[in-house]
Every structure is written in structure tokens, then in C-alpha cells.
């Protein structure tokens, strides 16, 4: 790839690189190629994350890829010269990050594409590499690097959403590709997902984390649901329980567009106001990120059980539809897989939340269907359908002989029958 990386072209090169092992089919060919790609990613991250993580992170991953006593494979391309004639600040944005993303996409292709020979996936290295990127939030970790200025921190924060998105895709592909080999690494993945949920701010990243959780639940069953139960319920309830269904028509149907640009603009403004960012307790990514939830003032008290009434000065935080749909779909799978387990402390709250959301979606969203909705974009019909499916899963997995809200749910299904039958979800 050239120094001026075109995103579409780089993905094509990544696909070609991923298909090279098929030219000479053998387990060693595939393993050598993915080893080279992962080493290349790790080396690029060493330069990108100077001062933003512990120094030993890169060495630890390198030891997983090349065990002590083994010789490292030849370098994938001439990484010394690539991007060498670019200024360091420009190089990071136009070469380093796009190259890392392209190589991560190559790994995704290799992990999910058919290969005629059974191969061993370097699971520990893939998960460790994903963890290395996903848990970097832009804050300075090491005071021994005074050269890591606020400008470098700003560049990192500008590109972190792109890097996080690429490595969430890589983690998803790792889980999908490893299949039966995943079990020994399940605990590490659960810890990574739990930790990342705490820092995931953007709609695109939260949606992808929910997608990863859904894949874990469907591929590993009830055992995984026990370990992910708390993190799923707490995050899904937090994303859903904000009474925003009454304001659904105010939401953007495609909130992911322009998110990265908004991030960078927000960070640039804050950097002018806060020149000493590295001395702040907040992370760089938190300062860069605009919350994916839209703010709105309200003087109406909330009707949800257990929530305190608001004053006129309270600020409402509204979650985008795409995140709400992902949360509903995750709750649906959780209820189908392990809904009857450990229901004492969470099931009643989830059941009440689902019936309230389905009721509000049916009432507030009726008759509103944007004519400009494109394929792959979320709409209120998607949200309404997801709420019905989650409510149905709640009824079918109920620990009671008769579900608590069966009468209300039956009436909702009757009301929504015509609209749901006339609506066919678009397949992305």
C-alpha cells in the first residue's frame, strides 16, 4: 500500500492478502500469514500508543506471536520505509491508522473465510491485541514520555473511534472463526467485553459490542449467559430506560454518520480551553467523545417504577434508536438462552421495562414511518418490532405459570399485528 491510503482500495488489498494462503493450501501457510499480519499490526501500535499504555504491552503480545526460542518470521512488507517521507503528524492519520485498520480487516477475512485445511487460530494473541486497542482511551499513562504532547493525544483521540470500530470487528471475527477453539479463551473475552462496555460512548461502538455479546450467547449458550448476565442487564437497562420512546420522532435514523467528525471538532474546541489535558483526571477519549445520547430538558416526571421525579432543570439523556434496538435484541437472546436462570434479582425489572417499552413504542410510534429511510438504517418500525420480539421472549421464558403482563402484551400484539405484518425489515 502507498503512503496515501485510500480506504476502499486498502480493503481490496486486504482481501487479496487474506486470499494468498489459498494459493498454496497448508496449515503452515495460513498460520504464517496471520502471524505476519498480527506482528505488523503490533509494531504499528507500538509507535502509535507511545505514552498512552504500559511499555510491556507490545512485548507481551510479541511473545504470544513468537514464543521464546523461535525465530520471528520475515517482516510483512518494508515497514521501515512505508510512510517515511510524511510528517509525523500527517503520517499517523493518513498511513498508520488506515494501515492498521486494513490489516485488521485482513485478519477478519482470514478468520471468517472458508479454508480447506483445519488450522489453529492464535486466539490468545488476537484477544490480547484487541484488548490492547479497545482499552486505550486517550489518557496519558506514562509520565516518562514528555514528548507525548497534547497534540499527539489529540491525534490519538481523533482516530480512536476508527481503531475501536476495526478491532471490535476483529474481536467479532475471532469469536466467529474460532468456534470450538473459543472455550479456553472465554473468560478473557468476558472480561474484555465487561471492561469495554464501561468506556463505549458512541452509538457505533455500543452497537458492535451488543453484536459481540449476541454472538457469544448464541455460540456458547447458557453457560456464557450466566457470566454475561449482569453486564447485559445493567447496560441494556441503562440504554433503554430513559423514556425516550415518547420522543422517537426527534431521533436521527442514522446517528453513526459524522460521529467521528463531531468527536474531533469537540476535542479541538476543548483542547483550546484546556491546554493541560494530560493533568486532568478524565480520559482523553471521554473529553473527545460526544455522548451518543441526545440531551433534552424536561419538566415531566418519569413514569418508570423506581425512578425519581425530575425538576424543570433536569437534563434528559436519550439513546439513539440503533443502540436501543441492539439492546432489545440482546435482551431477547438472553431471555431465550438463559431467561429462567437466576431470575430473583433482575427478571422483574426487565419484564416491567420490556412491557413499558413495547407499550410506548406501539402508542408513540404509530403512523410515523420516514419515507427517506434507506436500506440498513434504523427506523421506528425496526424499534417497534424489536420491542415486540423481546416482549415475546419475556413471555415464553417466564418463570411464572402465567406471565405477569400477558394481558397487556396480548393487546399490544393485536394492535401491532397489522403494522408488523406490513413491514419487512431490510437486510443490511
UniProtKB/TrEMBL annotation:
CC terms in the record's Gene Ontology section: nucleus
Q: Per the record, which residues fall in region Disordered? A: 254-311
Polar residues: bias regions: 254-266
Q: Where is the composition biased (Low complexity)?
A: 297-309
Q: Which domain of life is it from?
A: Eukaryota
Q: Can you cite a GO biological process for this protein?
A: rRNA processing
Q: What is this protein called?
A: Pre-rRNA-processing protein RIX1 N-terminal domain-containing protein
Its organism's taxonomic lineage begins at:
Eukaryota, Viridiplantae, Streptophyta, Embryophyta, Tracheophyta
Amino acid at each position: 500500500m502507498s503512503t496515501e491510503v485510500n480506504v476502499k482500495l486498502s480493503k481490496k488489498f486486504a482481501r487479496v492478502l487474506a486470499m494468498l494462503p489459498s494459493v498454496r493450501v497448508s496449515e503452515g501457510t495460513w498460520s504464517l500469514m496471520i502471524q505476519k499480519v498480527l506482528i505488523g499490526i503490533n509494531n504499528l501500535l507500538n509507535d502509535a500508543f507511545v505514552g498512552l499504555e504500559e511499555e510491556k504491552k507490545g512485548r507481551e503480545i510479541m511473545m504470544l506471536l513468537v514464543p521464546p526460542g523461535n525465530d520471528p518470521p520475515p517482516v510483512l512488507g518494508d515497514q521501515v520505509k512505508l510512510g517515511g517521507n510524511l510528517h509525523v503528524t500527517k503520517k499517523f492519520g493518513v498511513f498508520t491508522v488506515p494501515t492498521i485498520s486494513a490489516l485488521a480487516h485482513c485478519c477478519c477475512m482470514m478468520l471468517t473465510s472458508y479454508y480447506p485445511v483445519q488450522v489453529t487460530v492464535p486466539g490468545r494473541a488476537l484477544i490480547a491485541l484487541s484488548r490492547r486497542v479497545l482499552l486505550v482511551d486517550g489518557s496519558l499513562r506514562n509520565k516518562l514520555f514528555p514528548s507525548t504532547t497534547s497534540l499527539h493525544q489529540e491525534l490519538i483521540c481523533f482516530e480512536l473511534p476508527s481503531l475501536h470500530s476495526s478491532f471490535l470487528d476483529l474481536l467479532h471475527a475471532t469469536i466467529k472463526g474460532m468456534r470450538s477453539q473459543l472455550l479456553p479463551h472465554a473468560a478473557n473475552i468476558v472480561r474484555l467485553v465487561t471492561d469495554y462496555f464501561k468506556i463505549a460512548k458512541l452509538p457505533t461502538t455500543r452497537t458492535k459490542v451488543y453484536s459481540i455479546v449476541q454472538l457469544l450467547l448464541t455460540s456458547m449458550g447458557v453457560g456464557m449467559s450466566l457470566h454475561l448476565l449482569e453486564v447485559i442487564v445493567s447496560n441494556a437497562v441503562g440504554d433503554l430506560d430513559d423514556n425516550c420512546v415518547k420522543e422517537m420522532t426527534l431521533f436521527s435514523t442514522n446517528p453513526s454518520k459524522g460521529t467521528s467528525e463531531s468527536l474531533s471538532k469537540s476535542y479541538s474546541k476543548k483542547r483550546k480551553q484546556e491546554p493541560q489535558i494530560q493533568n486532568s483526571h478524565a480520559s482523553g477519549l471521554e473529553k473527545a467523545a460526544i455522548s451518543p445520547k441526545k440531551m433534552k430538558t424536561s419538566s415531566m416526571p418519569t413514569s418508570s417504577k423506581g425512578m425519581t421525579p425530575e425538576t424543570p432543570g433536569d437534563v434528559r439523556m436519550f439513546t439513539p434508536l440503533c443502540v436501543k434496538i441492539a439492546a432489545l435484541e440482546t435482551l431477547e437472546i438472553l431471555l431465550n438462552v438463559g431467561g429462567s436462570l437466576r431470575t430473583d434479582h433482575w427478571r422483574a425489572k426487565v419484564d416491567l421495562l420490556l412491557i413499558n417499552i413495547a407499550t410506548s413504542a406501539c402508542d408513540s410510534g404509530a403512523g410515523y414511518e420516514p419515507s427517506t429511510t434507506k436500506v440498513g438504517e434504523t427506523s421506528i418500525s425496526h424499534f417497534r418490532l424489536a420491542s415486540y420480539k423481546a416482549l415475546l421472549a419475556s413471555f415464553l421464558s417466564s418463570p411464572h405459570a402465567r406471565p405477569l403482563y400477558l394481558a397487556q402484551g396480548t393487546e399490544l400484539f393485536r394492535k401491532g399485528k397489522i403494522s408488523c405484518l406490513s413491514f419487512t425489515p431490510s437486510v443490511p
